């Protein structure tokens, strides 16, 4: 507020003093108005005229008061400004005056100082002139002294060297000799020096001999050895030979360690493989009752073939072999490469030669170490605790980094990674086979659970099974089949999850090799996703389908309930489980697919196909069971000489009973499905005994009628228009379709059997009664009741045809008999 | 009639019998005319043998009817040597008892002339078959089928009755039949032969029979079993046929809806299995000349012609160029242009509306076959022309 007022005041002052020439253009528009009291073009006449014209008296009065007020405040502002500026001017004048005085004083002092300095320079020059001669003399004397000391050193050298030799102070001896060597060489034409040189040579030869001896004795410590080598190198020993010797010493020590490692591995891995099957059985979650925590249990049992676990083994390998190897590399490099690069040895290409030798040496030993490690890894067959193996591999890999760091060009790290990769791939394979055997075991358990209650009592094909084999009878435990399915499904899923979790360890962040491109890409997509998950799903589908193939003929080996259950399992896989598992995998492993992977849709299609096949097979098997009953009942009876029907035959009741229990069984796992609307009197329908007569041909042109038909054409019209019935056809995934399939098979069998027999009057009547009974109970199960009507019509019609004395029974009598049951 | 459609197949020719029928055979001894014999099943009327002649040129059927008063016919077999001689298995009802019998018959010598004069007459005033002899030794009844010695002189037949296989010698112009040897099926329960086939190989010394789910081979010289395929089919075995060119190959079909091909030297597993039918398969027949063509008839009302190249005596087929294939007809389900040829369904024939119980190749024209459904409909069909040329060229 205050500042804005000030700025306005400043602006007006500026305006007053004509300082705003440069801002003119910008303000032009605003200030052109002659009525703007603050503008440069203000015209008081115009302004006043305007006011007088536009404003009332009161407004004019107000305007005036306002104006007076503004003028007053402007006046006081101006006064304040003038006063402030005056004060500043006064103080500036004072300051300038004071400065003038001070400078004058300072000038005088500076003059005094320069005079004194000149005097000091004079004195100093005279002093140094007097001391010149003495200084030269002293320098000369000290030079002579040094020379004498050197000579003395030379003369004393042999003795000193001997002394050193005695004291084993080889390092000092060599150092001394090196100092003297050049001088001796230079003055060797003088006899005295020559003598000294020869003495020295002799002594040094002896020394070298001793050093070599020491070097050859492997017992000396690594540090001693290095010292030896260093000294020998300084004594101009051939470096190549030294390298070889050094390495062979190191090799013998490292090989000892390798042998110790090898002793840890069982001598004959192939024999152990036989004892320990590749896929160790996982504990079955279904049997254990709890689908969780089943992996760690097996993990606890160690591989029986070796005494030490793999982590311990790798630890030993790392601590002994790898660290020794590192030590060797370090000292070798120190001696032959780093040193050589600086000294005069560099010229002789020694570093190159030395590092080539080193690389060969390391590669050779590492290869042997790797083969041991691989052998040990191969013994890890148990799929239990994966973390141990992963930790071992991690340690193995991590420790190799040290070697790489020391020896950047070496392939060791690369080879090590390859071993880890192979181990991981192998592991994935083992997990797959473990999963597979787990699945098969689970199925065996389900099979047992299905079989148990049946022995206990209920023997019908519809008998469900109570999980866990409690005292429940088959039919009284309607929830058992879904329970079995969900527990099977859950245990498989859990197993997959725990396997995924185990495999996931390979890609954990704190594992050194997890950031290798292989583990980021190929391992996740090809290894885990394809080899493990996708293959397992395929296995589930395929093994399920095998139940249809091998058990197909007799139908007895696989319980129908199992077929039904597997079919539902596969269908569930198709609808959700596969997507879930693959999404889970992709999420856990962040799979980036570089190579093409099996799409979810392919797997789903496969699962659906398996489900379809299983369900079809279920229908076939169940249909067969009922068919057999019907067939036996038709074949074994003498239909010509049978008595007048009084009852529905027991086999028909059995058929209805079995159909009902199959209906219940299927209803446990599958939805109802759609059926066509029933007519109001579905159960009460009469059959024409002549209904199945032959119809006219569709191929009228080439049809050659031979004689009037002896059968009733009229009643056959609906057959002409009805669809051809596929008896063993594909069923849909719902209860009605399944039951319809089974009933179709059964009734068609009935029809074909009837056509093979000859009937008497009562035989025909019995068939009429039986068919009416079936009609009463079966229509409700099927999708289209007309189908049941049609087939039953055919049966009654065919038996009428095959009847020697076709006198059908009264419909009312049939109804009475059937209602009596 | 000039055929204008070069590659189009002729429409099937259909003939309707007034009675239900199950028995069909080609007239084996007749190699010039295309002729089939059909036996009817009627409990009320006199049963008939229909002699169906097919005029290939005009696509017309000529028929003659002979009466078979003895009873309803379940099986029929034509003599390989004498055109006029045939056997039937029939049911005879007497005193509320149904008995299955077998007999050898001769057609009256002038049946053919009668039909030519007035075709309508023959239907109303048919001649009767002349009985040559009963195949009845007094001990065994319930004949399931009678088999003629393949390519024989018409002097030897085998009848399968209950659990016995009886080898008969026909003497005195077939008027007298004596059992020369017999074999009996031993085992638990009531065993019963359902069907059989006399092998044309090994000097006609072998027989194959079916009972329940098993197939057995017999040596006729010693009348002893030589092989047995237990559980050849999941359910009842309905029919058998020998590959005419490969002596160890045998086809079978049954109630499990399957058709299986066996190598009898190794009976553990079938060589090949077909699952094309949706109900019981009642008949399986190899083509006499081109054994890759196999006909199967089923109670799903369908007749299926399969091309089993991989197990035929002509496994490599013939090279076919695309041009020829592109003219293939609709029914042709084969994978086109594939070499070597693969086993496939050639055609599914849907002309029947009831269970098809029999199918037979013509003995005169290797590309023609007849099928018979229960409602008395006989359908004569041909191998699709494209396939025929493919096999021939």
Automatic annotation (TrEMBL), chain A:
InterPro entries named among the record's database cross-references: Cullin_repeat-like_dom_sf, Vps51
A Pfam family matched in the record:
VPS51_Exo84_N
Give the start-end ranges of region Disordered. 269-306
Q: Where is the composition biased (Low complexity)?
A: 281-291
Q: Which domain of life is it from?
A: Eukaryota
Q: Which family does it belong to?
A: Belongs to the VPS51 family.
UniProt protein name: Vacuolar protein sorting-associated protein 51 homolog
Q: What is the lineage of its organism?
A: Eukaryota, Metazoa, Chordata, Craniata, Vertebrata
UniProtKB/TrEMBL annotation, chain B:
Quick check: keyword Transmembrane helix in the entry? no
Q: Tell whether Repeat is among the UniProt keywords.
A: yes
* Record's protein name: EARP complex and GARP complex interacting protein 1
Give start and end of each EIPR1-like beta-propeller domain. 13-305
**What family does the database annotate?**
Belongs to the WD repeat EIPR1 family.
InterPro entries, sorted:
Beta-prop_EIPR1-like, EIPR1, WD40/YVTN_repeat-like_dom_sf, WD40_repeat_CS, WD40_repeat_dom_sf, WD40_rpt
What Pfam families does the annotation carry?
Answer: Beta-prop_EIPR1 (PF23609), WD40 (PF00400)
Which organism is this protein's natural source?
Answer: Gasterosteus aculeatus aculeatus (three-spined stickleback)
Q: Which SUPFAM superfamilies match?
A: WD40 repeat-like
PANTHER family recorded: EARP AND GARP COMPLEX-INTERACTING PROTEIN 1, WD-REPEAT PROTEIN
GO biological process terms, alphabetically, are: protein ubiquitination; regulation of cellular localization; regulation of transport
Question: Keywords on this record?
Answer: Repeat, WD repeat
Give start and end residues of every WD repeat: 230-272
């Amino acid at each position: 507020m205050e500042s804005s007022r000030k700025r306005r005041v400043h602006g007006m002052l500026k305006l007053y003093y004509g300082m705003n020439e440069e801002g003119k253009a910008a303000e032009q528009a605003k200030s052109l108005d002659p009525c703007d009291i603050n503008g440069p073009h203000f015209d008081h006449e115009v302004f006043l005229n305007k006011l007088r014209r536009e404003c009332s008296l009161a407004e004019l009065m107000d305007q005036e008061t306002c104006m007076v007020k503004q003028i007053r405040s402007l006046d006081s502002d101006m006064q304040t400004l003038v006063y402030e500026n005056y004060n500043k001017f006064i103080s500036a004048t004072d300051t300038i005056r004071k400065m003038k005085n001070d400078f004058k004083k300072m000038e005088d002092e500076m003059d005094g100082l320069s005079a004194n300095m000149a005097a000091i320079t004079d004195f100093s020059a005279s002093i140094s002139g007097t001391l010149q001669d003495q200084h030269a003399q002293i320098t000369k004397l000290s030079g002579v002294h040094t020379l004498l000391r050197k000579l003395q050193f030379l003369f004393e050298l042999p003795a000193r060297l001997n002394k050193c030799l005695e004291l084993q102070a080889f390092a000092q001896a060599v150092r001394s000799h090196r100092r003297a060597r050049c001088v001796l060489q230079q003055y060797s034409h003088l006899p005295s020096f020559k003598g000294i040189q020869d003495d020295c040579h002799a002594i040094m030869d002896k020394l070298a001999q001793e050093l070599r001896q020491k070097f050859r004795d492997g017992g000396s410590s690594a540090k001693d050895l290095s010292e030896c080598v260093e000294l020998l190198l300084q004594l101009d020993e051939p470096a190549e030979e030294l390298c070889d010797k050094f390495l062979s010493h190191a090799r013998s020590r490292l090989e000892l360690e390798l042998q110790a490692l090898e002793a840890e591995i069982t001598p004959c891995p192939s024999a152990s493989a036989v004892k320990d099957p590749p896929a160790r059985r996982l504990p079955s979650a279904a049997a254990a009752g709890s689908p969780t925590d089943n992996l760690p249990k097996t993990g606890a049992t160690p591989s029986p073939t070796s005494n030490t676990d793999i982590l311990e083994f790798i630890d030993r390998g790392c601590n002994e072999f790898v660290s020794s190897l590192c030590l060797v590399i370090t000292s070798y490099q120190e001696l032959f490469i780093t040193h050589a690069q600086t000294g005069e040895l560099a010229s002789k290409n020694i570093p190159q030669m030395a590092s080539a030798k080193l690389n060969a040496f390391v590669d050779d030993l590492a290869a042997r170490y790797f083969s041991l490690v691989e052998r040990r890894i191969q013994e890890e067959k148990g799929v239990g605790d994966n973390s141990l193996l992963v930790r071992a591999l991690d340690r193995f890999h991590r420790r190799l980094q040290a070697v790489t760091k020391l020896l950047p060009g070496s392939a060791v790290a690369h080879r090590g990674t390859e071993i880890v990769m192979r181990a991981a791939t192998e592991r994935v394979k083992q997990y797959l086979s473990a999963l597979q055997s787990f699945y098969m075991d689970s199925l065996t358990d389900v099979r047992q659970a299905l079989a148990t209650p049946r022995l206990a009592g209920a023997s019908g094909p519809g008998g469900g099974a109570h999980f866990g084999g409690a005292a429940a009878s088959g039919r009284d435990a309607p929830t058992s089949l879904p329970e079995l399915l969900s527990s099977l499904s859950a245990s498989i899923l859990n197993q997959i999850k725990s396997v995924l979790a185990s495999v996931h360890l390979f890609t954990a962040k704190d594992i050194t090799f997890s950031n290798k491109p292989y583990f980021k890409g190929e391992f996740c997509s090809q290894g885990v996703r394809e080899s493990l998950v996708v293959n397992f799903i395929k296995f589930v589908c395929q093994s399920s389908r095998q139940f249809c193939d091998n058990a197909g003929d007799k139908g007895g080996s696989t319980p129908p309930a199992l077929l039904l259950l597997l079919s539902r399992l596969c269908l569930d896989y198709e609808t959700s489980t596969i997507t879930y598992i693959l999404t889970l995998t992709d999420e856990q492993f962040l799979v980036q697919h570089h190579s093409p992977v099996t799409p979810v849709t392919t797997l789903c299609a496969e699962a659906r196909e398996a489900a379809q096949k299983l369900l079809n097979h279920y229908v076939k098997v169940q249909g067969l069971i009922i068919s057999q009953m019907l067939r036996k009942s038709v074949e074994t009876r003498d239909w010509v000489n049978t008595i007048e029907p009084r009852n529905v035959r027991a086999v028909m009741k059995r058929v209805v009973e079995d159909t009902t229990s199959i209906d219940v069984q299927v209803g446990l796992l599958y939805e109802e499905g759609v059926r066509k609307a029933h007519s109001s009197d579905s159960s009460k329908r009469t059959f024409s005994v002549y209904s199945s007569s032959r119809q006219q041909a569709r191929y009228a042109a080439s049809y050659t009628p031979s004689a009037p038909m002896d059968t009733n054409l009229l009643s056959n019209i609906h057959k002409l228009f009805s669809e051809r019935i596929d008896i063993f056809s594909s069923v849909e995934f719902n209860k009605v379709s399944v039951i319809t399939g089974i009933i179709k098979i059964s009734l068609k069998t009935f029809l074909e059997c009837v056509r093979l027999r000859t009937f008497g009057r009562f035989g025909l009547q019995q068939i009429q009664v039986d068919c009416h009974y079936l009609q009463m109970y079966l229509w409700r199960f099927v999708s289209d009741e007309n189908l049941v009507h049609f087939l039953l019509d055919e049966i009654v019609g065919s038996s009428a045809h095959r009847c020697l004395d076709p006198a059908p029974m009264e419909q009312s009598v049939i109804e009475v008999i059937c209602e009596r049951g | 009639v000039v055929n204008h459609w070069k590659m189009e197949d002729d429409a099937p020719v259909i003939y309707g019998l007034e009675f239900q029928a199950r028995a069909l055979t080609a007239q084996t001894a007749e190699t010039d005319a295309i002729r089939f014999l059909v036996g009817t099943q009627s409990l009320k009327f006199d049963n008939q043998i229909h002699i169906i002649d097919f005029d290939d040129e005009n696509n017309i059927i000529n028929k003659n009817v002979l009466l078979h008063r003895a009873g309803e016919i379940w099986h029929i077999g034509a003599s390989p040597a004498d055109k006029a001689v045939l056997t039937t298995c029939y049911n005879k009802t007497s005193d509320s008892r149904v008995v299955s019998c077998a007999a050898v018959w001769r057609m009256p010598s002038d049946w053919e002339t009668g039909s030519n004069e007035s075709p309508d007459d023959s239907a109303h005033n048919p001649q009767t078959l002349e009985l040559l002899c009963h195949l009845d030794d007094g001990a065994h009844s319930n004949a399931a089928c009678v088999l003629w010695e393949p390519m024989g002189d018409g002097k030897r037949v085998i009848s399968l009755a209950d659990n016995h296989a009886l080898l008969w010698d026909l003497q005195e112009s077939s008027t007298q039949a004596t059992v020369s040897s017999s074999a009996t099926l031993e085992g638990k329960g009531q065993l019963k032969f359902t069907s059989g086939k006399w092998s044309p190989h090994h000097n006609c010394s072998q027989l194959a029979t079916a009972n329940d789910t098993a197939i057995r081979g017999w040596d006729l010289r010693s009348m002893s079993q030589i092989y047995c395929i237990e559980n050849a089919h999941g359910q009842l075995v309905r029919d058998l046929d020998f590959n005419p060119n490969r002596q160890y190959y045998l086809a079978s079909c049954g109630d499990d809806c399957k058709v299986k091909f066996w190598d009898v030297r190794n009976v553990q597993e079938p060589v090949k299995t077909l699952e094309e039918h949706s109900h019981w398969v009642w008949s399986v027949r190899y083509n006499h000349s081109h054994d890759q063509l196999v006909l199967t008839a089923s109670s799903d009302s369908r007749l299926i012609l399969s091309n089993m190249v991989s197990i035929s005596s002509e496994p490599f087929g013939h090279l076919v160029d695309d041009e020829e294939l592109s003219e293939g007809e609709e029914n042709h389900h084969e994978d086109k242009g594939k070499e070597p040829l693969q086993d496939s369904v050639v055609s599914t024939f849907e002309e029947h509306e009831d269970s098809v119980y029999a199918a037979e190749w013509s003995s005169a024209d290797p590309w023609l076959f007849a099928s018979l459904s229960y409602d008395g409909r006989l359908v004569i069909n041909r191998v699709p022309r494209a396939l025929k040329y493919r096999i021939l060229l």
